[in-house]
Recover the amino acids of this structure.
């Protein structure tokens, strides 16, 4: 939202200054935000009207800014001055935006009272959103409703901006329309409208169908399972869908299309990163060190999330087996067997593809998980204790550290500092699972076009996941990386038409040989021999 | 241990170093006067346009050189003594070698124009040129207009660079149409229109007479030869081609022509001295190539080849089928095989252009045998590997046109044009 540009180049003025449309857009958009902030200090009489004005101004401001940026330019790549504008190059305005966003997230997660949230009667910003919430679900707003509304507006308005920016690129357009749709319908409207079905003897949890475990870490919490089961047919359908999503639908789609089907076409976190976060994609760290950190952190979060979920489920299964046909012991043994089998299958089929550190990591993690499960299985403690911790503590700790601090405060608040996908890259356990699948069992790859790469570095610079795409492209290798979300920007910004996202046969997908064409065949044989 | 010294840290020299390291344990030193680390020369334009920072143009992180035991030395070689196998630097020190690879690249051509060495006149080749441009054309207040002399690949890139900062550009092109010595008429005309759509003042068939200075010795204006028109400007870009950057060996016993003369093994007349990349000149042109090829890709291939030879596997430089690529503002260009600007005796061209005026292809084939000889493609990406295969298999043009969709490399969901192209080909509506 910080749209003010200031020259930070050492040698002269930035290539871009704000044109009149961009200036008016910035003023109107900030005006919309100002109304929302102002509602903290005054009790508007006609809340519905002021809310409408604020949201329209916010959207309109972004769209006007987009018009100023792209409407009189020819179709093509629009990256002029990205590294001169302070907001998109970690300059002064970048830090201002980062600190502001981070502050907002801290208030949202930990001090919602400051926004006016109250169980009795909302005040302030939350109250401003009451009319819209009542219109949709019949209930007063919460801080999550406020956040959801702003989040959806950000994806929609910046989504249109993104489509404008890439109006020569159908892949980018369709992908963006898809995230805009899934956010608006699945994450926002449907769950709100579903809440209307709730009554005293019937209630469904807020259910974003596309928000799968383990990204949705509370997907299998006891209270949700109870509500689903109590809601009978429709609840059971949702529950079965949630389980199928994890074990059948998602592996199948990832096999066919790579993790992009989720991460850059469906996911809400990805949706925000690709739209509102687009201006910051170039800030991701491409160093080898960052890649090493990434692999350890994301897989640790994944293990943490598996352990936490296992703990939570086994705890409520243990209370008394009323309503559940599964007992705690069967569940724990089942998890251990499942993970063991999964590991054995990967090891059997893919052991040659895994690098040494990946193998050590995998073995290490498996041992830890199985040890924890067996400790718990054999320990005869009261059911509230799990492993060495209380399961509820483990759950709260996860919710605080991963759910709030990592995905919210750092993941989004730090967009202008670390780039738009730092959560997806370093923290998201869902991305972790999909990434393993993509690396090991998927048809997806980014194909390199023979020897056409000129090592310019646009692909690596604009990779939001911090993949050094050029390192592969300049050797003529295909790019098959666990973290790639298939946003397609590397292919778009390539000035030589070298990169193409493709689903193809598994054979020859990961081609570690240099295939630079143009040189004679004997030489290529020699090059590849060594 | 044998010491291989490479003069020049561009794509040719660095590729040679990488492959020598793969094949051997020799001591390797890369010498450069331009920069500390290898960078992609073709990406300099993106630094000026703000798409990337300079460090993004460096393909390898700093640890790479140490890990691979490739020593980097910054210095300007002013003399090569091949008898004592020693390099003498302008800085005063010297360096002994066992094997020497000359990979010093090119320098911009200057044709003796009056005023060609004034302040504010520059090529667009070295990192220093970029720094110069930042000094003289930081924005459109300091630089009211830039004039570019020479309608080739670097010229159009410089036009895009200046216009990205809102600096008006006059583009002097000697030919009747942009890059028409290489591109067939239809393509060249389409690019002319695209250049004008980007608000560039394109002057076709215009030569530079002289560059005039103000009282401080800085560029003030240029005079056009044909019309005598004077155009006020603050920067002049000289982009009329490049030539080998080999002045420092002119006094040595190494044989030179326009470039360093080499045989097919990239060996010079002096034992243990090799030359690769832009600065190497073949005694006889290979296939239909030029004796000097100032292209990224050929530099890379020569680097791979010379590494084999130096590591004891004596092999010839045998480039495969010609390919190249460029981008003209928003229009990408790729070429595979040979498409000359005018069909030669036994050849004919098929040209197709999309009505939006940003996409076209030209296919060259033998009019007697129908053999497919090459393709130029604009605004549609195509697969290198497929055309390499088709050229090797000597496919006829009908086969290529029927199977063109296999070669498509555009991103998913892009509109496809193979049907249009095929029906145009069948109807022979537009031929050149």
């Amino acid at each position: 939202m910080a749209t003010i540009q200031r020259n930070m180049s050492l040698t002269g003025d930035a290539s871009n200054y704000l044109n009149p449309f961009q200036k008016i857009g910035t003023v109107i958009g900030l005006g919309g935000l100002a109304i929302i902030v102002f509602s903290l200090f005054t009790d508007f009489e006609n809340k519905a009207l002021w809310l409408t004005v604020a949201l329209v101004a916010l959207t309109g401001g972004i769209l006007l800014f987009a018009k100023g940026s792209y409407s009189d330019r020819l179709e093509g790549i629009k990256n002029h001055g990205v590294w001169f504008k302070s907001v998109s190059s970690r300059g002064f305005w970048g830090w201002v935006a980062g600190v502001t966003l981070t502050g907002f997230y801290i208030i949202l997660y930990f001090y919602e009272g400051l926004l006016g949230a109250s169980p009795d009667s909302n005040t302030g910003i939350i109250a401003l959103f009451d009319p819209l919430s009542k219109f949709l679900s019949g209930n007063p707003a919460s801080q999550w409703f406020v956040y959801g509304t702003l989040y959806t507006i950000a994806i929609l308005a910046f989504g249109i901006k993104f489509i404008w920016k890439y109006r020569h690129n159908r892949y980018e357009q369709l992908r963006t329309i898809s995230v805009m749709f899934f956010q608006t319908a699945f994450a926002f409207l449907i769950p709100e409208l579903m809440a209307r079905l709730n009554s005293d003897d019937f209630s469904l949890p807020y259910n974003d169908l596309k928000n799968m475990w383990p990204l949705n870490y509370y997907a299998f919490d006891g209270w949700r399972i109870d509500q689903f089961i109590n809601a009978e047919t429709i609840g059971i359908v949702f529950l079965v869908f949630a389980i199928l999503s994890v074990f059948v639908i998602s592996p199948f789609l990832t096999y066919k299309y790579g993790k992009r089907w989720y991460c850059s076409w469906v996911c809400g976190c990805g949706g925000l990163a690709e739209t509102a976060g687009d201006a910051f994609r170039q800030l991701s760290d491409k160093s080898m060190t960052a890649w090493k950190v990434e692999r350890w952190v994301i897989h640790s979060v994944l293990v943490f999330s598996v352990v936490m979920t296992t703990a939570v489920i086994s705890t409520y299964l243990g209370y008394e087996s009323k309503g559940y046909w599964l007992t705690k012991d069967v569940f724990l043994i089942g998890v251990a067997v499942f993970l063991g089998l999964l590991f054995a299958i990967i090891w059997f089929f893919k052991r040659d593809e895994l690098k040494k550190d990946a193998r050590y990591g995998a073995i290490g993690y498996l041992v830890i998980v199985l040890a924890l499960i067996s400790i718990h299985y054999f320990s005869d403690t009261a059911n509230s204790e799990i492993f060495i911790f209380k399961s509820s503590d483990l759950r709260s700790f996860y919710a605080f550290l991963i759910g709030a601090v990592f995905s919210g405060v750092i993941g989004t608040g730090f967009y202008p500092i670390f780039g738009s996908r730092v959560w997806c890259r370093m923290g998201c356990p869902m991305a972790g699972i999909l990434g393993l699948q993509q690396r090991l069992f998927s048809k997806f790859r980014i194909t390199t076009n023979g020897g056409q790469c000129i090592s310019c570095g646009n692909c690596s610079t604009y990779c939001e996941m911090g993949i050094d795409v050029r390192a592969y492209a300049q050797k003529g290798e295909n790019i098959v990386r666990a973290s790639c979300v298939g946003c397609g920007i590397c292919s778009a910004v390539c000035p030589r038409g070298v990169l193409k996202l493709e689903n193809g046969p598994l054979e020859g997908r990961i081609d570690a040989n240099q295939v630079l064409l143009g040189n004679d065949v004997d030489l290529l044989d020699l090059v590849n021999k060594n | 241990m044998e010491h291989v010294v490479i003069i020049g840290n561009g794509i040719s020299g660095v590729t040679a170093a990488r492959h020598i390291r793969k094949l051997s344990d020799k001591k390797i030193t890369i010498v450069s006067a331009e920069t500390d680390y290898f960078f992609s020369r073709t990406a300099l334009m993106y630094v000026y346009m703000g798409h990337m920072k300079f460090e993004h143009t460096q393909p390898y992180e700093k640890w790479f050189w140490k890990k691979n035991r490739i020593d980097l030395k910054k210095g300007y070689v002013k003399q090569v003594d091949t008898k004592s196998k020693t390099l003498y630097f302008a800085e005063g020190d010297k360096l002994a070698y066992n094997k020497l690879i000359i990979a010093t690249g090119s320098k911009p051509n200057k044709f003796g124009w009056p005023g060609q060495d004034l302040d504010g006149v520059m090529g667009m080749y070295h990192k220093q040129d970029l720094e110069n441009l930042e000094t003289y054309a930081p924005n459109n207040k300091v630089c009211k207009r830039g004039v570019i002399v020479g309608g080739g690949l670097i010229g159009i890139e410089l036009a895009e660079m200046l216009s990205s900062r809102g600096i008006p550009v006059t583009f002097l092109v000697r030919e009747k149409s942009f890059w028409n010595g290489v591109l067939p008429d239809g393509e060249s005309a389409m690019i002319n229109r695209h250049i004008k759509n980007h608000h560039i003042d394109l002057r076709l068939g215009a030569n530079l007479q002289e560059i005039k200075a103000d009282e401080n010795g800085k560029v003030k204006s240029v005079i056009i030869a044909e019309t005598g028109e004077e155009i006020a400007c603050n920067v002049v870009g000289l982009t009329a081609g490049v030539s080998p950057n080999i002045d420092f060996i002119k006094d040595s016993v190494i044989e030179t022509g326009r470039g360093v003369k080499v045989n097919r093994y990239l060996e010079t007349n002096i034992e243990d001295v090799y030359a690769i990349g832009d600065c190497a000149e073949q005694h006889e042109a290979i296939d239909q190539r030029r004796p000097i090829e100032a292209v990224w890709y050929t530099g890379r291939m020569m680097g791979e080849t010379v590494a084999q030879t130096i590591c004891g596997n004596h092999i010839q430089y045998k480039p495969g089928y010609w390919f190249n690529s460029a981008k003209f503002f928003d229009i990408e260009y790729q070429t595979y095989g040979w498409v000359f600007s005018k069909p030669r005796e036994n050849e004919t061209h098929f040209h197709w252009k999309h009505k939006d005026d940003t996409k076209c292809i030209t296919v060259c084939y033998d009019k007697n045998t129908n053999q497919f000889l090459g393709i130029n493609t604009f605004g549609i990406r195509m697969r290198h590997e497929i055309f390499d295969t088709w050229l090797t298999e000597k496919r006829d043009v009908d086969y290529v046109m029927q199977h063109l969709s296999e070669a498509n490399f555009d991103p998913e969901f892009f509109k496809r044009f193979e049907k249009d192209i095929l029906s145009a080909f069948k109807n022979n509506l537009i031929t050149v």
